[in-house]
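Forgive a beginner's question, but would it be possible to get any protein sequence you like and the tokens describing how it folds?
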Amino acid sequence: MEHRLSKRVQGKLGLLVYKRGMPVATGQIRDASKRGLFIATDYTDVQLNQTVELEFRFPDTEEKRFRRLKAHVVRKSDRGLGVDFEGVDNDSFTISSLIRWLKSHHMPVNYFPVRRQQAY
């Protein structure tokens, strides 16, 4: 059983992963909390506890600027990376904005109704 310190919000948002100031990979946020994210990516050239930067923007807003967050890699798997915001300097407003955006754009799996064939 998993014990989390803050509630996770599922969602999907594309991002770039930066290492030492250079973009190194693309990924997609799959879930987020005030403490961290899980990023779906095939990028593996990163070590546990290494600091990365994550760059994203909210595609449906008038504001077109990119936002950045710093995080430590705390988990690696063949599905992606788990990162934690603890111990790095971030703007809490950016983290809160990301969580709010994911909540408002999350579509449950059963969002699309099953199509039924019509009898002719």
Remarks:
- The longest strand covers residues 9-19.
- The two ends are 51 Å apart (CA to CA).
- The helical segments are 92-105.
- The beta strands are 9-19, 22-32, 36-40, 51-56, 67-77, 80-84.
